[in-house]
Write a structure and sequence with these properties.
196 residues, seven-stranded mixed sheet, 4 helices
């Protein structure tokens, strides 16, 4: 049985796993400043659609770690994700939009085989219409998905050893929100562009 690390070693292992995950080629992934006050250790990634993809979508993945554990997390790690994507205006008034978008979260985690507990979040749809001197601007409709969960341990490994799956789930959620077609069976990634 593999030893489950704790403390700093667990976070180092988690960061190593995060580094192994790659999003689809339509997105550029960068490490960005992590929130400093939410946990003793944190890592954050941002994703933006490439110019050539023609997509209007972006997202953020934050991994929080407290070696002492947090009661509200029921664990030592917490993943927090944010997705923002443009959608067709008629979708914004679809009464099932919120439920469909939340199903993307659950499907993405399931497809990535990322075990979680205490999954929660919100779905928000907004639309804007410009007036006056801004009339030339096209109407814009966006959907935002915010979710967080506690990564769970596997059969013989700690959650830190499965962290690449949680990043892949975030990438899958981003792709779903952007309206990208699913990858062929057996293909988990298509070579992302990762900045230095």
């Amino acid at each position: 049985m593999r030893t489950i690390h704790a403390g700093v070693d667990a976070f180092a292992t988690a960061m190593d796993q995060v580094g192994k995950a790659e999003l689809r080629a339509e997105f550029v992934v960068e490490e960005c400043p992590a929130p400093a006050r939410l946990a003793p250790q944190a890592l954050a990634l941002s994703a933006e659609a490439t110019e050539v993809s023609g997509l209007d979508a972006s997202g953020r993945f934050v991994l929080l770690h407290d070696a002492d554990g947090v009661d509200e997390w029921e664990g030592t790690f917490r993943a927090v994700v944010f997705i923002r994507a443009a959608i067709e205006p008629d979708l914004a008034v679809d009464p099932m939009l919120h439920e469909v978008c939340w199903s993307w979260v659950e499907e993405a985690l399931q497809e990535a085989e990322a075990p979680v507990q205490l999954l929660g979040g919100t779905v928000t749809a907004t639309s804007s219409t410009s007036f006056g001197s801004l009339t030339d601007r096209p109407a814009q409709t966006m959907v935002e998905v915010r979710a967080s969960w506690t990564p769970a341990a596997g059969a013989d490994v700690g959650p830190e050893s499965l962290m690449d799956r949680h990043v892949l789930a975030w990438g899958s959620l981003l792709a779903k929100a952007a309206g990208l077609m699913p990858l062929p069976p057996g293909v988990r990634q298509v070579g992302s562009r990762r900045s230095p």
